[in-house]
Amino acid sequence: MSIFELNFSTRGINIVVKFNIFKRHLFAFIRHMTFKKLINFVQAEFNRLLKKDFVSSYPYLLKIESTNICNLKCAYCYNNRRKPLDGERPYGRMTFLQFKQLVDEVGQFVFKINLYGYGEPLLFPESLDMVEYATKKNIGVAISSNMNYKDHDLAEKIVRSGLEVLIFSCHGVSQESYSKFMGNGDQELAMKNIKSVIDEKKRLKSSTPFVDWQYCVTGFNEHEIELARDKAKELGIDQIRFIRANIPDDNASNEWFSTMFPKDNEVSKNVPESQGCSWLYRSAYINYDGGLLPCCGNVRPIKNDFGNVFRDGFKTIWNNEKYLSSRMIVASPKDKSIKCDTVCSHCWVTGDYEGLPYKN
Questions:
Q1: Which of 134, 210, 214, 336 is the one with CA 20 to 30 A from 221?
Q2: Average pLDDT for residues 240-264, to the nearest whole number?
Q3: Who wins on pLDDT, 24 or 294?
């Protein structure tokens, strides 16, 4: 297990983009440093390197899904927004008080919260209240948004909330390519809103949020990459990233794959088993209903939850049987004597453990 192991959920990113993401994490690390956070960080990395099952630390990065509801219907996202099946998580949203409960419990250890999951966080006003609360608690917050809203005050609300990073999901420069990916989205409206945020930053003389344009490259929008670069420069966007779309290789048509990211080029397949998984030590994924998972891999089935933070408390779950067995199987994927019945036992990190390779 590497000392500098860096796992990114974003796929198909090159070394330059990885470095830029790392810089943002480092910025949050330095900006929100406290003595307690530093001690916890050292303990977390020590536990990870020694592959401990029971850990004395808490995660210093959290991914919290404020809602899984979205105003768009992007291709292949959340199973095309289908209705939940039996045993799957319904659609819903986290309340501000629930978010506050979670931050009050473990926020003292956390440098950064990624306040997004499989929904659109800015659909609901409490999301920016959550950002403001976490900011006041000395935690950096990032949000990923499609920016498809008609709200005259949205830009000012975003900047004044203290949001540290705004990831702008926009997969095309022309409406034709954009709508092919993002369904009922309005590309012109999204661009207008992101420009308003940048203008509002200047007006309020704010250095945040850092605006990061995330552009998923496909065969039908690849020809607009240079146009996107020009547009980003024109608007004053801080960074633009061209990444691999989360498209299944086995049932998608060729137009969804590009020369940059061709078919059958799954990044995760090339990651060595020995790399391990840092999520079980550094981070956690919390669904809007409090369902706690080690990562964002397969969040719909409620049975995959390791517990519920609103019912049981985060600290109670962090070293429960599911976490202990998951850390053990990830640390020793070839040890068949380990009894583990969690999503981690079916993950690519553990290989073909029990003959059930993980699939989302």
A1: 210
A2: 83
A3: 294
Q: What pairs with residue 141 in β-bridges? A: 113
Closest CA to 112 of 198, 13, 208, 205: 208
- The Cα–Cα gap between 64 and 235 comes to 29
Bridge partners of 67, per DSSP, are 93
164-189 in b/e form (b: 16+ CB < 10 A) is bbbbbbbbbbeeebbbbbbbebbbee
Mean pLDDT of the chain: 88
What is the reported pTM? Answer: 0.88
Query: To which residue do tokens 């009894």 refer?
Result: 339
Q: What are the tokens at 51?
A: 């592959």
Tokens (6 digits) for 250? 């086995």
- The arithmetic mean of pLDDT across residues 184-200, rounded, is 96
* 110, 135, 28, 192: CA torsion to nearest 10: 130
CA angle in degrees (0–180, nearest 5) for 283-286-292: 90
Task: Retrieve residue 96's tokens.
Answer: 């501000």
Query: Among residues of the chain, what percentage have pLDDT more than 90?
Result: 70
**Strand order across the beta sheet in which 61-64 lies:** 239-244, 210-217, 165-169, 140-145, 112-114, 61-64, 283-286, 291-293, 307-308
